[in-house]
């Protein structure tokens, strides 16, 4: 009988740690699958009409984005494994890659954009892979003739065979892309599972297995991956005793933080431990601690070095928390508290920080003299892991029960997610013993623990699938962490939020008040940017976004005066291009600037100022910096640094953010930000929730209608049940605030606004990620000149201008609602003389007035 093998790689294996065997297999494109058929199969009705597969990415607009160019998933692994690569030794004893896949230079990107973009990622991946190999060879002085490669395109059997062959070859020291395969015992007759682990490098001399990371921070997940590699090797049995250390080659976190990496190049670091938390480290905000110390602390945690300090407060590679020692003892570190030692001699930090800034490769040397952790207060707990054999049994049983089902098993999914606590494997243990009672205990359980492997819309759609019609797809931000683990609490929160009516607070008008000033020039603008794992310019961090496109519309008293659409050719982008973009935004010193989410635009503006300063500071070190200085002098004069920074400060300091009208603000800090409307009167509720300041409305056919004020009880609890207050609250948005979601609201009700945009779904480029894709493809020279100029640039301009007109339309929405309630707003729009006055409601006449706050 033929043996049926099932392949289990890391991208699949890691799911087992979330204790839901029913979600191990066939969960690719989960959100789309639930929307298209799985929800109907369980609840006998389609999912909410407002949500569809085209909206999925837009519902992630408000979620935090991570460094995700290289996502470790099945699709990307498949793309990499199909690429035939030769590593060619050059005269300077470095390896270069020759990629043999076919990439058409002149591509019809509208038809094949996704496929081409995948190839672009493969190119970047292979360049990074090659550079990391050369860096390691240089660091450890490995003779290039002692390096052997296991080809990606080889069969699994050949990869394992080559690894064993190179292991026994005395002339090979370093094995690139080693593969280890553990074949399980047979189950269900003739089936077996091949657990396949591959490393980046195997240094036989140092008895070290090295993995490769594509980001600037370590996380606890790095321990989990080494657990997988360790146990596959151990179970295989061939190489036991020959690997006694694990490390991780990553982007140098100090170089990334200090932005010392040059354009198109990379600096690496070898980590022997990881930051023992799921989330990325953040820089300490302890202002009483010197910033130099906080900088080094941040770098120490990103690099995993902070985990390697022993209780004598000495940096120790052989710490019990390093990758190899922790995994050998079958545990993963988990941080419980972090504390910088305030009593340390902080003066000695400055020279070390200076050395770090001069040479960002000396992290380890810095750590050896670092004494600023209070080890007694830097507590690290241990999470002990299950036996590998037990996890193999879970995969085998899950494969038999769930792999070949046509649909997801709702009963099983809900049963496993009903456990209290993500690390609780008790229900999985019962299931292994067939004591789950046909998953009956999960049906009525109110506990729900959806793991962090699902984020954004996927998590929300999965919760909808599990809970059913009563669960509305509000942003997950309305729930506290405790509420997210209990179905009843989530449904109660939804019902409370649903009872909050559509309302406009008078403060919305105060946010846009500068736009009502007479004869002021208003610049509406929107950036698009792109990024790559390699810095696009000198003094730019890996993955840092660089602006390459702007649309600018200048209005005066509501009338369009001028328009510019600029798209920089990313193939040859220079810092001067970014400067010219900002000069276009400056628009001869417009009075005010309007964006949607100013944190992005303002940050990009500041980034360019820093780059201008860095190029100027280093003008004597490289001819290209001197050329830039000469260009800036010609453009703005010899005081260009001061002039340009003044331009950026003027833009940022006079920017109005329309997002402030829609985005929820914490009630805990609200009174500090907007004190003039948050002054409680004795015995009464605060002004924020006073009926005079709040007006209710509902949607009608092609219009909005005002509701009677007495139809709602005005209290903070009723207006902000999720502890967030809004100036314009619209139920239809379900707590989301992206401009595209607001645009869909306007379009859905066909509101009679003066400005109309092209619906995004009718554009060729429909969202920012698509614009970024095109810019990145051009940067990688995967779009030819003719295609770029004739096809891409016009569509990029059309999309970006549409975004700016969408902002104008959103402003008109705010004014439309205000005008329904207070038609006297027309007496003030474009007629105000000063921003010293604020909008208020006269208590006697209920009319809109202006007065000093």
Give the structure's gist in a few sentences.
The chain is α+β, with helices and mostly antiparallel strands.
The proportion of strand residues reads: 15-25%
Unreliable segments of 5+ consecutive residues: 52-73, 101-114, 671-687
Which bin fits the share of residues in helices?
A: 25-40%
How many domains would you count in the coordinates?
5
Q: Structural class of the secondary elements? A: alpha+beta
- The overall strand count is 26
Q: What Rg is obtained from the alpha carbons, in whole angstroms?
A: 29 Å
Q: How would you sum up the global shape?
A: globular
> Could you describe the largest sheet, including whether it forms a barrel?
6 strands, mixed
Biggest sheet strand order reads: 4-5-8-9-10-11
Give the overall average pLDDT.
84
Tell me the number of helical segments per DSSP (H or I, 4 or more residues long): 28
What distance separates the N and C termini?
Answer: 85 Å
Domain DUF2779: 523-667
Protein name: DUF2779 domain-containing protein
InterPro entries: DUF2779
Task: List the SSEs and their pairings.
Elements: E1 4-8, H1 10-13, H2 30-43, H3 74-81, E2 85-89, E3 95-99, H4 109-140, E4 147-149, H5 156-168, E5 174-176, E6 179-183, E7 191-198, E8 201-203, E9 208-212, H6 221-236, E10 245-251, H7 253-258, E11 268-271, H8 291-302, H9 323-328, E12 331-335, H10 349-358, H11 363-368, E13 380-384, H12 388-403, H13 410-417, H14 426-432, H15 440-443, H16 456-467, H17 487-498, E14 502-505, H18 507-511, E15 521-530, E16 546-556, E17 559-567, H19 575-586, E18 592-595, H20 598-617, H21 623-636, H22 640-653, E19 655-657, H23 659-662, E20 665-666, H24 667-673, E21 694-700, E22 703-706, H25 716-719, E23 724-725, E24 728-729, H26 739-748, H27 768-779, H28 785-821, E25 838-841, E26 848-851
Parallel strand pairs: 1-7, 4-5, 9-10, 15-18, 18-19
Antiparallel strand pairs: 2-3, 5-8, 6-7, 8-9, 10-11, 12-13, 14-21, 14-24, 15-16, 16-17, 20-23, 21-22, 25-26
Helix pairs in contact: 2-16, 4-27, 19-20, 19-22, 20-22, 21-22, 26-28
